[in-house]
Write a structure and sequence with these properties.
292 residues; 7 helices; disordered N terminus
């Protein structure tokens, strides 16, 4: 069976009820390196200053950059390569590029005038001595220069799901991670719309999940590293589960997400959180000429 690799954001896209047309992918495997919740305290600081452009946030720019339209291809996954001194993105939509540049999740981007998704191929050279952590700053400058992006931050009350303790005891075994293992990493394998997720912490498991288009937050208070392994149907993650539902919608042999969490002593409850939203004030979908 063919396999496809997706970026971390690609997993969330699949759980967003096929928002970007990714239904039908038969097999994919993705290594997700979750770093907190992506949004930083710096976002809230910027919100206090009102409207900003990408160049307001950083003066770092790429030495050379090429931006080309990339025609959509059925079932084609995006490619993101960030090597020493160079980046290469293929079939990346503007929304995902903004997400990478501003360190926000898809649901934190508010873009009222967004039309049909446009995909791009981007190749750029970094200045000597640059680090991977500086790439988002250069992407913000690229978005301001090539796409004329202007944006600002606003707090929004966002519907979420809280991951809490269930009625039964938490069942995963406490473990000591192997040497080199990252406790903030999550592996998700998708096969025929069924999901198999593995994580070392409850917080990381919550970060991996997106249910009915809502983000999931850890509210269990469970600390430490565990061998967490769940399997659930993609269909169940696209509908809102009832608080007492441990069966839910399933597809194939995989249980619903409510049942999968119930089986390890956890459950989902509906809630709201105030989260910073990146509001797009202006963005050209056609970039200006390349500069090399």
């Amino acid at each position: 069976m063919p396999r496809r690799w997706l970026t971390p954001a690609g997993v969330h896209d699949l759980l967003l009820a096929g928002r970007h047309g990714n239904r039908g992918i038969s097999m994919c495997r993705v290594r997700m390196q979750i770093v907190g919740r992506w949004w930083a305290a710096g976002l809230l600081v910027q919100a206090a200053f009102g409207q900003v452009t990408a160049t307001d946030l950083s003066t770092r720019t790429f030495v050379a950059a090429s931006v080309k339209r990339d025609p959509p291809q059925t079932l084609a996954a995006d490619v993101i390569r960030e090597d020493a001194g160079r980046i290469y993105y293929s079939r990346i939509p503007l929304r995902r590029l903004i997400s990478r540049a501003y360190a926000v999740k898809d649901y934190q981007i508010e873009w009222k005038s967004e039309g049909r998704p446009e995909f791009f191929e981007i190749a750029a050279t970094l200045p000597d001595g640059s680090t991977k952590k500086q790439i988002p700053e250069m992407l913000r400058a690229l978005l301001a220069d090539r796409f004329k992006l202007v944006s600002h931050y606003e707090p929004r009350d966002v519907p979420v799901f809280e991951l809490v303790r269930g009625n039964a005891a938490f069942k995963p075994k406490r473990i000591i991670p192997p040497d080199g293992a990252q406790s903030n990493g999550c592996t998700v394998v998708v096969a025929d719309d069924d999901y198999h997720a593995r994580a070392l912490t409850v917080a990381t498991l919550a970060s991996c999940l997106m249910v009915a288009g809502r983000p999931v937050f850890d509210a269990t208070g469970i600390e430490g590293t565990f061998d967490i392994d769940i399997e659930f149907s993609g269909a169940s993650a696209k509908s809102s589960p009832a608080s007492d539902d441990v069966n839910g919608v399933s597809s194939g042999e995989a249980p619903s997400i409510s049942t999968a969490l119930h089986n390890i002593g956890l459950k989902l409850v509906s809630g709201h959180r105030s989260l910073p939203q990146l509001v797009i004030d202006r963005l050209n979908s056609i970039p200006t000429d390349n500069w090399l």
